């Protein structure tokens, strides 16, 4: 039997008893936004806000002084890997970027053995991106209790720091609280870990109107049960919304393109100026990147006045500083109390 993305997500959500929080509610690992409370998500947002000075520039703070962070990216990344490294250095950590392409995983060494060996070199935090859904949970529950695990994206399952940088961007740029917002997510919802994590974070933060816009073939079966409104026509779905989040189709993870033709997709689901004009006049345009210009989004929109796409990247540093700092606090508390 082929396992669907829903099977994987349901299994992960039901079998995990929140290994990411300590008994006092402090974050010890950051594996996903599912199961975290509104207060915990606001703590991440508020902590991230604290890394900007009065003029909006990022500050340095030695929260990870003396700590060692290893970045383990088994999948390619530009934004996530680099902003984690910038965040770690701004917090004063010793940073090691493990070159997976040249590591002994290429000789067949298992994930567990790789981690045990890296653990023996002493580290405080592993930041991991992996193509397997559940890889970060596996590390947190089965491999190493003494190291904080931060999920930099696992398969189709979750991309929690992306979700939180999206929430920080909405918090900073929208002129309303989460409880009054209408947000539309457009694209390959079915195969997007960003969509899963964004929907979960938006729901937890109290956004009353979450819309997903995609052809049925790119929607997970039964998505309505997550309390989102489904639209197959983009012109209907974006009307009056405060934020539009475009998605990339992860063809490299699927091994084949999900759409018959890029030009046909752009014609039907591309984020164009005409379609953005149907949303609120000050609606935010967001995209996690990397963007396929002329497929998911028109260049004039991506680079236009309503786009906050590069602000998302900058906010990613603050959010990753916040998550690293909170996870290290939680890890220290765990070590003291066991
Ligand atoms: N948004 C995002 O995860 O981008 P990267 O794949 O470049 O990290």
3D architecture notes:
The structure is a single chain. This protein has 338 residues and is an alpha/beta fold. It folds into two domains: 173 residues, Rossmann fold (3-Layer(aba) Sandwich), CATH 3.40.50; 148 residues, Rossmann fold (3-Layer(aba) Sandwich), CATH 3.40.50.1370. The chain contains 13 helices and nine strands. A five-stranded parallel beta sheet has the order 7-6-5-8-9. It has a four-stranded parallel beta sheet with strand order 2-1-3-4, with helices on both faces. Helix 2 packs across helix 13, helix 6 packs across helix 7 and helix 6 crosses helix 13. The protein starts with a helix and ends with a helix. The N terminus is likely disordered. Bound molecules: phosphoric acid mono(formamide)ester. The site of phosphoric acid mono(formamide)ester has 9 residues, from helix 3. Phosphoric acid mono(formamide)ester binds next to helix 3.
